[in-house]
Amino acid sequence: MRRPAAGPLSPDIEASIKKVVSDRLEKLPLRLLHTSTGVLCDRDAQISHFESSPQYQHLLSLASSLDNHQLETEINNVISEYFEYATLSHRWGNGEPLLRDIEGKSIYDLRGTGGQVKLQKFCIIALRHHFQWAWSDTCCIDKESSAELQEAIVSMFSWYHWSSLTVVYLSDVFDRGSLAGSVWFTRGWTLQELLASSAILFYTYDWSLYSKSDAVDHTSDPALLDELRNATGIAKQHLTNFYPGMDDARSRLCWASRRRTTRPEDIAYSLFGIFQVHLPIFYGESTQNALGRLLAEIISRSGDVSVLDW
User: What DSSP string runs through 191-213?
Assistant: First the structure.
């Protein structure tokens, strides 16, 4: 059977590829760790890696063999797969490497603190799962820039949601069945990381998998899901398929009520993504003021005044 003639080709496949790459990167964090080299890459470096990759050459080679629709589909598929990334969720410890500590270096060359080893182990796990990119809140944000910090806080939920895997490191979990005792379940920011992530794997103190099942997502493991429900008080349907927004706002606030943050205002800021609100960040304001602004927004949009009694 003769193959149907291909339709008219795009006059500029490179421009088409660049447009798709740009659209994809808009949904990703500004900086990502390149897992094979351990180097922190900004947008330009991410694009440079892609344009020197076999995947890019593959797309260029298809221009003469596919029609526009087929080519567009392949471009989107290849670019989406190339820029898949893993995120780290953890309790901060002493000596976490910050952006200035790793700029221009490979994280695999770092020596010393537990924070450096943790970052290396995380990137190695991401690489083993075939992700070229990884993101950690320790070193991938310029916390000296107030504008970038604000953008990161309001985008954090989306970044975890768009990641293909969240690696949860529980440094204080040593045995099966002790998940609920981890301090990870008492921290404010880890609540949205748990709810936003599309796939999660839990690792114990020695970087071994907490669950010995072959699940690629621990929230699909029924036994572990029961442990998560008991540890958090969150119903299973939210643990497996959470939607940000105003539904059942009081319950969402109750989930956070047992958690704490190092900076008091963060107890409110860490909930912005869960409620899908976009409010300004004012470090230095009181906890009461930060929560007051959040509650006012929730009531304004949901009409649910019961949140005042959470």
Answer: HHHHHH-SSEEEE-TTS-BS--S
Helix 54-61 with 43-51: angle, nearest 10 deg: 60
DSSP letters, 131-146, are: -SEEE-TTTSS-TT-H
Nearest C-alpha neighbor of 90 from the set 189, 217, 174: 189
CB contact set of 27 (below 8 Å; sequence gap of 6+)? 158, 162
Q: Could you give the CA distance from residue 270 to residue 304 in angstroms, rounded to a whole number?
A: 20
pLDDT in tens, 244-264: 999 999 999 999 998 999 999
Q: How far apart are CA 227 and CA 225, in angstroms?
A: 5
Same domain assignment for residues 42 and 86: yes
In a domain, 116, yes or no: yes
Sign of CA dihedral 71, 76, 78, 79: positive
Segments forming the whole domain that contains residue 256? 243-309
- Region of poorest pLDDT, from 61-65, 174-178, 255-259, 294-298: 61-65
Residue 23, in any domain of the structure: no
Q: For residue 1, is it within any domain?
A: no
The angle at the Cα of 72, spanning 133 to 27, to the nearest 5 degrees, equals 35
Q: Would the CA dihedral through 201, 205, 207, 213 be positive or negative?
A: negative
Helix 13-25 vs helix 54-61: crossing angle, to nearest 10: 140
